[in-house]
Fold this sequence. Notes:
Elements: E1 2-7, H1 11-28, H2 35-50, E2 57-65, E3 70-76, E4 82-83, E5 110-113, E6 119-123, H3 125-128, E7 131-132, E8 135-136, H4 138-147, H5 154-168, E9 179-183
Antiparallel strand pairs: 1-2, 2-3, 3-5, 4-6, 6-9, 7-8
Helix pairs in contact: 1-2, 4-5
Amino acid sequence: xxxxxxxxxHGLHAGRRAAFVRTAFVTTAPFTDDPARLLSWVNxxxxxxxxTAEEFVTAACLTYLPSERRLxxxxxxxxxxxxxxxxxxxLGAEQGVPLGLDTHLECLEGxxxxxxxxxxxxxxxxxxxxxxxxxxxxxxxxxHALADVAxxxxxxxxxxxxxxxxxxxxxxxxxDLCLLAARIG
Length: 185
């Protein structure tokens, strides 16, 4: 299972909410490999604990079934994961709403067969929404950075993207940036 999330806001309260969501994923992950169900369970834990509120968390959840070589994904208001080597987004049938906004979470799973060595990138919107002179780094910036290196390792992907987005934004990022890259073994 791979998960990346982004808590709305900043400071202690947002950090506590992020820690709660992380704990909910860790607690529920052993019981299913269905990413939409995991997101739903985390949403239930979040809304039962704090009720629905404007303070939400977006999340992307991916699971991999080695016996079937099947990658599955679902999103709760979060940017889609992408394939490292092509920049193709793993789009869902429905993006879903962020966690914590409603007691009932609707998000549909997507899936595909994967080959050994395929790579994935999960990220927060701090990557694509980095700004310079009113322009965003965007998906074209991400794809351009990835296209410059053939079959990069996850560590190379992280280093390249961090460097390129910082350079693009003149070294000043205005939002949190979280990157998670992995290759299927």
